[in-house]
Design goal:
By secondary structure, the protein is α/β, with parallel strands linked by helices. It has a single domain, classed as Rossmann fold (3-Layer(aba) Sandwich). The chain contains eleven helices and eight strands. Strand 1, helix 2 and strand 2 form a beta-alpha-beta unit. Helix 1 packs across helix 7 and helix 3 packs parallel to helix 5. The structure holds thiamine diphosphate, iron/sulfur cluster (SF4) and magnesium ion.
Length: 304
């Protein structure tokens, strides 16, 4: 298993400024800071309706020192692709175009545009800020909300499971797919820099970003919760290149999922049986990821 820490230095220049409108301790704001500071100032951000739209600021105000284009919830990938194509026609192809969308705008409402952009392999970096629900509008369920979780639309616990977006995106065969989270900032920034420097093709990173308000987490515990998501195996950190080359950066560290679940109000209703079920599903998903990582590499190698 590869290391998460590569002594990667997060650039110090602040492109994302303080004084924005996020809740104190917001995981999404923290992720945006690492992402845009790493992308650098020669970047145009594309943002759909979401907490990031509020955080990046209502025009003419902005918390970012780069241009931000606010698009519709359906169209982040299409807007980003169009901007990139226009830049190339103007001889400004070196400028990075970065879509910054929530999970609702990625797993669900913006998915058609994202899948189309991936199929065309558009030259953009797409970062999904996954807080596992439609948080900006009151913490409703999205396709990213985990199995059995409380949301405003699933008061008894969500009956269906979380969509596996890294695998869905990897199956498009795009150059780069990665998972990341705010609790491992070096790993996150390294992946953003790698995606930025690849130049060409759609690079997709999904970042687990605890929403303190929607998850029922204390203001100062977002980073701890995001680390626990990884260390309990619920959110393994990994990369997939060209749909076949898997690198697992960090998996479960022998901590039961109950340690993660008990940090959050949205899991307060769980019975011991439900917790056992989540543990079982997490173990199975981890086994499957490891099997897929070795099997896909073997088959792809044999086919060449
Ligand atoms: C087609 C469409 N449906 C619904 C809305 C209302 N809306 C605005 S922001 C938002 C929540 C977006 O959730 P997500 O993408 O997960 O971002 P988050 O707020 O969690 O950061 C919704 C439903 C909209 N703007 N457009
Ligand atoms: S609602 Fe959640 S994601 Fe939105 S600003 Fe507050 S903590 Fe951040
Ligand atoms: Mg969301």
């Amino acid at each position: 298993m590869a290391e998460t820490k590569k002594n990667y230095q997060i650039p110090e220049e602040d492109i994302f400024l303080s004084g924005h409108a996020a809740c104190p301790g917001c995981g999404e704001a923290l992720a945006v800071r690492y992402v845009v500071n790493t992308m650098g100032e020669d970047t145009i951000a594309v943002v759909p309706p979401s907490c990031i739209a509020i955080i990046s600021g209502p025009q003419p105000y902005s918390s970012m020192k780069i241009p931000v284009y606010q698009t519709t919830l359906e169209a982040s990938a299409a807007s980003a692709a169009g901007i990139k194509r226009a830049l190339i026609r103007q001889g400004k192809g070196d400028t990075n175009v970065l879509a910054l969308a929530g999970d609702g705008g990625t797993y669900d409402i913006g998915f058609q545009a994202l899948s189309g952009a991936a199929e065309r392999n558009e030259d953009i970096v797409y970062v999904c800020l996954d807080n596992e629900g439609y948080m900006n509008t009151g913490a409703q369920k999205s396709g990213a909300s985990p199995h059995l979780v409380y949301t405003a639309f699933t008061p008894g616990g969500k009956p269906t499971t979380k969509k596996n977006i890294p695998e869905i995106m990897a199956s498009h065969g795009i150059p780069y797919v990665a998972t990341a989270t705010t609790g491992f900032p070096d790993d996150l920034a390294r992946k953003v820099a790698k995606a930025r420097d690849m130049k060409g093709g759609l690079r997709f990173i999904v970042v687990l970003t605890p929403c303190l308000a929607g998850w029922g987490v204390k203001d100062n515990e977002g980073v701890k919760v995001s680390r626990l998501a990884v260390d309990t195996g619920l959110w393994p950190l990994y990369e997939v290149e060209n749909g076949v080359k898997y690198t697992i950066n960090r998996g479960p560290q022998g901590i039961p999922v109950s340690e993660y679940l008990k940090t959050q109000g949205r899991y307060k209703h769980l019975t011991p049986e439900m917790i056992e079920q989540i543990q079982r599903e997490t173990d199975e998903a981890w086994e499957l990821l490891q099997a897929r990582a070795s099997c896909v590499a073997e088959v792809a190698g044999a086919a060449r």
